[in-house]
From TrEMBL:
Pfam families: SnoaL_2 (PF12680). GO terms for biological process: polyketide metabolic process. It comes from Mycobacterium conspicuum. Residues 12-112 form the SnoaL-like domain. This is Limonene-1,2-epoxide hydrolase. The lineage of its organism: Bacteria, Bacillati, Actinomycetota, Actinomycetes, Mycobacteriales.
Length: 130
């Protein structure tokens, strides 16, 4: 499979859009089994099992999640996305977080996903510790 610019971009757009439906299987479907997910302020998570557990943790505390793309740049196998993530916590609190994500695509799957954001801003708004 060729990781074209268009295919890489669509995979990332599908992943970001999948959060609103809240299906863990759909959210994780674009990841390779040995993928790495790195919220850059904290330690990376290696492997789909750990990534699933982290994403389930988010779904457990967020009643709603919308990841809005501000700017997207793609090339074959790499996508950079500036976005604003909007979360509604189960208790009604709102989280608005500017994020930049870097996606590495290999063989049609997300091999590495790194998110860059202000950890103190996220933890202050959400009450969560990453």
């Amino acid at each position: 499979m060729t990781d074209t610019k268009e295919a890489s971009e669509q995979l990332v757009r599908d992943f970001l859009g999948s959060w609103q439906a809240r299906s863990l299987d759909t959210i994780c479907s674009g990841f390779a089994d040995d993928a790495i997910y790195h919220n850059v302020p904290v330690e990376p998570i290696e492997g789909i099992a750990g990534i699933r557990a982290m994403f389930q943790g988010f779904l457990d505390v967020f009643a709603d999640a919308r990841l809005d793309i501000v700017t997207l740049a793609a090339e074959p196998g790499r996508v950079l996305v500036e976005r604003v993530d909007y979360f509604t916590m189960n208790d009604g609190r709102k989280v608005v977080l500017p994020v930049t994500g870097v996606f590495e695509i290999k063989n049609g799957k997300i091999a590495r996903f790194s998110d860059y954001f202000d950890l103190a801003d996220f933890e202050g708004q959400s009450g969560m510790k990453l």
